[in-house]
Automatic annotation (TrEMBL), chain A:
<dbReference type="InterPro" id="IPR050771">
    <property type="entry name" value="Alpha-ketoacid_DH_E1_comp"/>
</dbReference>
<comment type="function">
    <text>The pyruvate dehydrogenase complex catalyzes the overall conversion of pyruvate to acetyl-CoA and CO(2). It contains multiple copies of three enzymatic components: pyruvate dehydrogenase (E1), dihydrolipoamide acetyltransferase (E2) and lipoamide dehydrogenase (E3).</text>
</comment>
<keyword id="KW-0560">Oxidoreductase</keyword>
<keyword id="KW-0786">Thiamine pyrophosphate</keyword>
<dbReference type="InterPro" id="IPR017596">
    <property type="entry name" value="PdhA/BkdA"/>
</dbReference>
<comment type="subunit">
    <text>Heterodimer of an alpha and a beta chain.</text>
</comment>
<protein>
    <recommendedName>
        <fullName>Pyruvate dehydrogenase E1 component subunit alpha</fullName>
        <ecNumber>1.2.4.1</ecNumber>
    </recommendedName>
</protein>
<dbReference type="InterPro" id="IPR001017">
    <property type="entry name" value="DH_E1"/>
</dbReference>
<keyword id="KW-0670">Pyruvate</keyword>
UniProtKB/TrEMBL annotation, chain B:
<dbReference type="Pfam" id="PF02780">
    <property type="entry name" value="Transketolase_C"/>
</dbReference>
<dbReference type="InterPro" id="IPR009014">
    <property type="entry name" value="Transketo_C/PFOR_II"/>
</dbReference>
<dbReference type="InterPro" id="IPR005475">
    <property type="entry name" value="Transketolase-like_Pyr-bd"/>
</dbReference>
<protein>
    <submittedName>
        <fullName>2-oxoisovalerate dehydrogenase</fullName>
    </submittedName>
</protein>
<dbReference type="InterPro" id="IPR029061">
    <property type="entry name" value="THDP-binding"/>
</dbReference>
<keyword id="KW-0786">Thiamine pyrophosphate</keyword>
<keyword id="KW-0560">Oxidoreductase</keyword>
<feature type="domain" description="Transketolase-like pyrimidine-binding">
    <location>
        <begin position="4"/>
        <end position="179"/>
    </location>
</feature>
<dbReference type="Pfam" id="PF02779">
    <property type="entry name" value="Transket_pyr"/>
</dbReference>
Amino acid sequence: MSVTTAVEQTENNAPLQILAPDGTVVRPDLMPNLSDDELRELMRKMVFTRVWDQRAISLNRQGRLGFYAPVAGQEASMIGSEGALSKEDFILPSYRDIPQMVWHGFPMHQAFLYSRGHIEGGRIPEGVNVLMPQIIIAAQCTQATGVAMGYKLRGEKRVAINYFGDGATSQGDFYEGMNYAGVYKLPVIFFSQNNGYAISLPFEKQTASENIAVKAVAAGIASERIDGMDIMAVYYAVLKAKERGVNGEGATLIEAMTYRYGPHTMAGDDPTRYRTGEEQSEWELRDPLIRFRKFLEAKGLWNEKDEEAVIEEAKKAVADAIKKADEAPKMKVSELIDCMFETLPPSLEEQKAEYLAKESK
Amino acid sequence: MAQMTMVQAITDAMRVELKRDETVLVFGEDVGKNGGVFRATEGLQSEFGEQRVFDTPLAESGIGGLAVGLSINGFRPVAEIQFFGFVFETFDAIASQATRMRYRSGGRFHSPVTFRSPFGGGVKTPELHADSLEGLMLQTPGLKVVIPSNPYDAKGLLISAIRDNDPVVFLEHMKLYRSFRQEVPEGDYAIPLGKANVVKEGTDVTIITYGAMVHTSLKAAEEIEKARGAKVEVIDLRTISPLDIDTIVESVKKTNRAIVVQEAQKTSGVAAEIITQINERAILHLEAPVLRITAPDTVYPFAQAEDVWLPDVKRVVDGLTQVLDF
């Protein structure tokens, strides 16, 4: 099966699945061609990310992190999609997409500094092709068209991927971005992680559309609706979308059906006000880690020892990163002023002097 | 040197930059084959090809996002907003995205976009075409705002704007596009951003203004000089952000009297900012309160009321008289 159009997809509204929740392969014909080591690496990253997320939540509760949007439940969507890209591809993330950034090369201690609202948290190292997480929920959809047009103009075989939630698809920029990408046939992947809720608003109150994937039809671009709890389906769809992009066939909208187990963010959101425990339990049966673990165990590629080793590795990495973040000197207003223009105009030079005086006390 | 209208000078500036730097791209609604609704991009697509000069779908937020994305990928986009009343559709891209890029990325990326747009009253456009929204831009940190008043400045300032590594909003007054011609050098020259121009020297009162109001102010200065012999200094700001406060203060210290003339509505705009800064820096040099001559705080009027709504020579003369007689 090649990437389907949304019209074909709607005839059978079931999202594409390669691994069933019990880890068995239901679409061997679509199984990505990955080595044993590559398969294990995807599992390592998912387990690592789950532990990191648990630690981040705990650090947030202790007041040692700032803004944080939990990711548990969405690991397959996040890691499967990033895993199908190469480091040359450009990620335009949304606020929850810190794992893709880090697996793409952004240092973890800087992600913690970002969470704490420190300028160092945004200092993207040379060679790491990411933007900082977008807050305006669909702005990255239009920006991705510009990054992708740059690749197309230079004849580079690279794609831009932008991540957003189901809520962002209600915003005009989502449509404007897809429309531009369609008109100019740009190598863009619009990756929607449909976790069913935009903060508290359920999908059926977000849109009367049957699903997100059909929205690609209006923009004349390809789309795919996939099981976002199935890392193989995610990997497959993103790889196909990337091929499409670099072969000059244009953009793809991917709708990954997924779920966040935790709150929207740690800043006071209480999901029990708008979701039931039964619903969460149902989704947990489709958990991306359990599913992929079962698949790997059946092939003899994963065992308890592997799992424990990654858990230890992740705990240590998080501890080291937090320590490193703690060591960063406090951010200064003078540094902020320095970032407003390439060369400061006299008025800002004056204002900087005021703050330098305060900061030297 | 050639005689050019302001719109021709603007086209010429883009031509110079498209030729000089292959990362410069020009795009917007109808800018390709049609050459723009004011013909500001006339001939550029046939000269530089559809990859360098191209039409966009009619969606301003998309234009802004495209420009921001291209700018972080090594290009210098010159994006046209067809009329400045449409800027709200792309205000997020300008004010929240392009201006924050250097800060958000800790200096890794910057957003060297030039957003060009026609604006300004007196040409009887439909509503939401002429609006003077430069005050909103002025209040946006990280943004440069350029408003030329003549063909020579327009070319030199636009070249500087395109070469600038910060986002620039470049506002072209519609009434000035074809109102007169001026000698404009061929090829390459740049006028620095953030530097005002003293277009007429005087000793008794200063007019601080920009855009089309430079011409209204010069006429008013001439009238008052004839009527009472007072010598008027006129400052054309050229860029309202960064503001060349040194030139303003120097002039006020010499003349001890000033008025600020702007086409935009009264409250919290460019004039308010300038008067505040004069108070902060030169209040003891003042012999009279600094007045502002502006439009009233209404939405931009329909065409029937436009001529009365806009500041005119008489209102500037009245303002000058008031501060001279204080």
